[in-house]
Amino acid sequence: MLPAALRRWLHRPKRSDPRLLSQFFFADERVTRVVAEINGLDAELDPQQYLVLLNQLHLSQAHLLAVIERIMEECIPTQRHSRDYLVKFPEELLVDNLGNHMLFAAECLLAGTFIEVEEAEGAQLRPRARNLLCSLELVRTVLREQSLSQPGTYPEPVRAALVQFDRLFAEFELSYVSSLVAVKSPEEIYRQQEIIVLFCETVERALRSGYLTQEMIDGYEPLLMFTIPRLAIISGLLIYPEGPLSLERGPEQMSRVFSPFYNLLKKIRDLLRVLSAEELCLLERSLCAAESEDPRGPATPPTWGAAMPGASPPAPWGLLEAPHTTPLPHTCTGRLGPPDAVESPGTDSPQPPRSSPGPRLEAPPGARWSELRSHYSSTKDMLHTLFVCISGVADQLQTNFASDLRSILKTVFKIVASQGDPSEDLGTSKEDGELLVGDAPPVADCPLCHSPTEGAGLRRAGAHGRPEWVPDSTCSQCCACRAPFTLLRRRHHCRSCGKIFCARCSPHTAALPHYGQLKPVRVCTHCYAVHLSPAPRRSRSR
């Protein structure tokens, strides 16, 4: 057998080789070279160079792990260890370089370096860290040997080493993260899924009632991050009392997101039950506003019975709306329903209404109703108290459970947002079997484009295809206003130039026949005003 150095020189892969084992060879070589430089450097004499090499080691290890991950997807796709446990982690931990953090933590544990875990937990994690690093060295050895012999195949020893490394990595990742943060239990995951359903039903009801618009949801208005949880509290306490906010169960059976507010939610529910349809509608509309508004109005008398001695106080809000019933009219007028329309205490579900669509109200519960209202000087005072309490609970979610709420709202927006027109993504429209492509609108070179020829390039692209889209991962802020993208400020591609903008900088739609887009599609303000002819323009903003 040839010596290892000679065999490495004879069978060394080329950098242009696209095979994964060839890419692994150079990634592994880079890590080995940086480690050798760190070992030969005196950190006390040249601390600046030491920090530079540490950063290079961090980047090279991340690249190496990424290549190994791709090799495992290609070599053992059906033998990978389950990663279902990732749903238990807080969302801020689910970053692209989480694997590199786990490798760094394993090295620190094995070296005895200070790390933010208890001594007892560190003693339990240390054997797992040792097994993980030994398995990684074995994977590097077998993949290096394979890349120098047959870089296109994966024999059984390579597969076995990869399967073992994948299992040990998953076990260490779950154990280490569990020792640092409180991971979600399966029961908590299920409860938060119920909250997602409640939020989605709340949005659907708000759309039918006119509190929200589909444009607000599709534009990911930041105000919705506060509005949806506020309305969901009312829905969970009145409309879906057996759902995730059910107060018939103890706080230990609620999601950890709402369980700290158990006693306050009971008080809110009791007050909500004595509201009339008009009062509840005014309260919900005020909760949808950015700031506290007077939920009554100047024409509403300050107290019941004093200003209206001859009128009876409105009936309390009882059965509001059953899921998936006929949409309510966009009014705040409530009326008494027939006695048999009220939910019976012994039934599990509300009885269907026998009258025309509209809110149905229970009869006043008498002393209890009067007692609750007597605590407040006026209806305005009571509604203001409800506004403060509901807003306080919803806003506390933003602070105390920011990660959970962000994950819930992210899923809700994916469900309730309008689905894009498939023709926008296909970019082609056929009639009689032929592609209809027009000529690009003749516009002059644009001085606002980044280069003198960019505007002309938009014209020439029509003959060859759509412009190349900027990848989402390479753009962290709007190309026009430079506002950073967040959970609520979403990315939108302009179909004319391919760049990424926020919703406010791309509020227009226009047909792009020179790209095969015969239906109106989203375009940015710049392309709408400069690069498009007036004929196909149509603004989507209202």
From TrEMBL:
User: What is the protein's species of origin?
Assistant: Cairina moschata (Muscovy duck)
PROSITE patterns in alphabetical order: ZF_FYVE
**Which residues lie within the region annotated Disordered?**
291-310, 315-368
Task: Say yes or no: keyword Metal-binding present.
Answer: yes
One Pfam family, please name it.
FYVE
Q: Which SUPFAM superfamilies match?
A: FYVE/PHD zinc finger
Official protein name in the record: FYVE-type domain-containing protein
Could you name the Gene Ontology cellular component terms for this entry? early endosome membrane
Instruction: Respond yes or no to whether keyword Metal-binding is given for this record.
Output: yes
Spell out the family assignment given in the record's similarity comment: Belongs to the lst-2 family.
Please provide, alphabetically and separated by semicolons, the GO molecular function terms listed in this UniProt record.
zinc ion binding
Keywords from the UniProt entry: Metal-binding, Zinc, Zinc-finger
Which stretches make up the FYVE-type domain?
A: 472-532
